[in-house]
Amino acid sequence: MSELSLVTPSSTLFKEYDIRGVIGEDLNRDTYYTLGLTIGSELQDIDTSKKILVCYDSRASSEIFAEALKRGLLLSGIQVIDIGCLPTPVLHFAMRFLNCPSSLMVTASHNPIDYNGLKISIAGKNYHGALLKTLYYRMIHHQLRVNEKNEGAYIQYPSELLVAQYIQAIKADLSLPQKLRVVVDCGNAVAGKVVPQLLTSLGCEVIPLYCDVQETFTNHHPDPAIEENLADLCRVVQEQKADIGMAFDGDGDRLGVVDNKGTIIPSDRLLLAFAAVVLNTKSNPTVVFDVKCTQQLHDYILAHGGIPVMTRTGMAHIMSSMAEHQAILGGEFCGHFYFKDRWLDYDDGIYAAARTLEMLGEQANDVHTYFKKFPKSINTSELKIPISEHKKEAFMRQLLEQAPKFLGGTIVRIDGLRVSFANAWGLIRPSNTGPWLTLRFEAKTESDLQQIKLLFRELITIINPFLELPF
Questions:
Q1: Cβ(128)–Cβ(316) under 8 Å?
Q2: Rounded to 5 degrees, what angle do the CA atoms 167, 170, 174 make?
Q3: Considering the entire predicted model, what is its pTM?
Q4: pLDDT digit string, tens, across residues 44-59
Q5: Which of left, alpha, beta for 252 (phi over 0: left; psi -120 to 50: alpha)?
Q6: Which residues are annotated as catalytic?
Q7: CA–CA gap between residue 201 and residue 183 (Å, rounded)
Q8: Is residue 220 a contact partner of residue 248, using CB atoms and an 8 Å limit?
Q9: What domains sit in the chain, N to C, each tagged with a CATH number?
Q10: Where does the Alpha-D-phosphohexomutase alpha/beta/alpha domain lie (predicted)?
Q11: Model confidence over 222-249: pLDDT tens digits?
């Protein structure tokens, strides 16, 4: 393999939650080598354990980039524990199980196949926002610790053993009252290494769909937040007369669910069902959710004695808010779920799948009938407006300045702009994972939905009439 060189990547790689970019344009082996040395230098300064876990997803570039990353880490003099190609939740489990407070995950999660990235945890902290900027500052000012004569130790921990330990931990936490017939769609991504094995061990009849792990996602992109990616799952659930269908994203930390009639259950509606469980078992529980979630979730929690807390989208913000408010449950519209009542303190789409089956196995009704009991509304999926990264900030600044003049209503600015009326609400926010603005609308009637869309359309067009609006 060719020699590696230190480089200075563009600051645009450093997103709000992690590092992401296009392979060949923003990212190459030298980028990861430099990141490894930079992160190793940071860890030398603040983590007394001087060790870090490294994991990667199944993308074609991920193992190659992970190798370069490890070479940079070892050059800094820290110990590297390589757990191989596994889902992000298994990495988070390994941090606790192996008592290692720092970890790196080479993944671009749900981004297109030509992307890759890096999720960073150092000394028990998820690096996002200002913490990511400190790494960039260290990099550009060459505050790097090179220990050529005393490189760190390299340990390879068997991934199969870790998967077995992860599955055993979940089985010790729960049991299924009914053994359900489950279609599992892993989108040919790394969750296929764990989910079928876990659900089978729990007693389910598993019907695998795209569970063979591939370097490219040949059947559909593994993003369960996009309805078209669930089309095959919906069809197979009906064909196989299954009880439920489950889909996972590119690194296994997000979950999508389809009921026995092949109907998609939105993630905020699934979170509402989880909230109903904790409201029945805990006194005045706090539930945290992001700004994209349905108003029905807020209202249901409040009406049943809980404390609803809305916060910004993103793992770091959800976890921070959960810690601040001592919440036992959290979730995001895109399919992240966080359980602190019985599980570890991180988002885990695989564990969420097991908890879903536990919850539904306790019901006499089928899945479709069970979800009928929860309140519904008329809403859109998450919509996207393409916009370049350098124009995104200026657009949002103008939008926030102009919004009160055109919209009225109750304005929430914690993450973009969410405007609520008595019968409807709308949201527009800058994506932190790609070059677009994301929107969502919800209303009590179709007429109210069209009205809130119109108000947002008029405001957006005034600020930038050239944007391509998907509504």
A1: yes
A2: 140
A3: 0.95
A4: 999 889 999 999 999 9
A5: left
A6: 20, 109, 336
A7: 15
A8: no
A9: 11-159 (3.40.120.10), 180-263 (3.40.120.10), 266-345 (3.40.120.10), 378-463 (3.30.310.50)
A10: 13-123, 165-262, 267-375
A11: 999 999 999 999 999 999 999 999 999 9
